[in-house]
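Re: folding output
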Amino acid sequence: MTEPGPERVRRIVHVDMDAFYASVEQRDDPDLRGKPVAVGGIQRGVVAAASYEARRFGVRSAMPSMRARRLCPDLIFVKPRFEVYRAVSQQIREIFADYTPLIEPLSLDEAYLDLTDHLQGRTATRIAQEIRARIRAATGVTASAGVSYNKFLAKLASDQRKPDGLFVIPPEAGPGFVQSLPIGRFHGIGPATAARMEAHGIQTGADLLRQSLEFLTARFGKSGTYYWNIARGIDHREVRPDRIRKSIGAENTFFDDLRDLSAACVELGPLADKVWRHATRNSLTGRTVTLKVKYGDFRQITRARSVAVPVESRDQVLAIACELLGPVFADPHGVRLLGITLSALEEAGAEPAPRQLGLFDQA
């Protein structure tokens, strides 16, 4: 569990486009520049992306559009144009390929690059600067980048000087940088896990560093090893250019077991938000919604429903999940965990392929 020696320090760059969808819309429509813009959520649903002008009012992606409108009455809603976002993303990907074949896309607007064996006499920082300049020249939108010796820190670094910024975390600074951050800023630690950690007195990276591996694995299972490592600035994950997303999922473990069906359906809302946010960021949709239920006695079941036409909205994901939950909810032990997964993925807006419904497909 120690970081590789200095003779093999990796050079990882995380590139993250700045308010990508909204920035593309502002690029293409001069009347939108300098104004608060939200992509998506025109009639109902959630915000897929928000411009920095909108973010100043507290508008964020995955926020219900009605709440976004209340926060920013002058908010301008724009219909998503996924074909345009995909085209711009492809331009960016071609720029990356000029520097390394080791590219791991996370979505249309962000990716990891491993430059370790592809520096050609330059520093990773210099290459990151070149990439950002070329993206702006080619696409008219800006990107932020983080440079470090592993994926975890590179992603943290890309958030430090947004928008249109560059931040470097060298090996000697990595552990100290992690210790100074609040837990909520850690990639891989969502709001529910952060709340559980805070309940144990873990509020910062320094607090996490003080916990033993045994303590973390006992309370967080297999993820405990990951948390133990990142508290020390350690992340051995490789950049995977062949990474293919097969499903998009989210789940939450509750402090108190759920025993009321209507309350449980409310708890499914944030999970549907998260799944749909990731789907829209990747310009994806899917045909199968799977519900995961873990009861208070740790028994676990899943129920799935496939639809003939790809899912069109966050509300549809939530409606299917709630319908699946009803018949399996009643249990004397209560419900400890709920999860939603969207699978059978395909590009949003793509021409639907002819498909014969299977025996177990349900409308």
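--- second protein (sequence, then structure) ---
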Amino acid sequence: MSYQSNTTSSAGTTGLAFILGGVVVALGVVVWLAFGNGLPSSDQPDIRIELPGGQAIEGEVSGN
């Protein structure tokens, strides 16, 4: 009978999986920024502070 030994190296596949995972994450971030409005707009934000008793103070933030 012949004896066969199969040795495989997982170092190459581990590195490839790490690189592929990084590409998938980077692509996900790009898609989220492009289609999900991930970046804030240049509009001034509106502020609403709700007080006890149902009262609210509303206004806009002004930058100097």
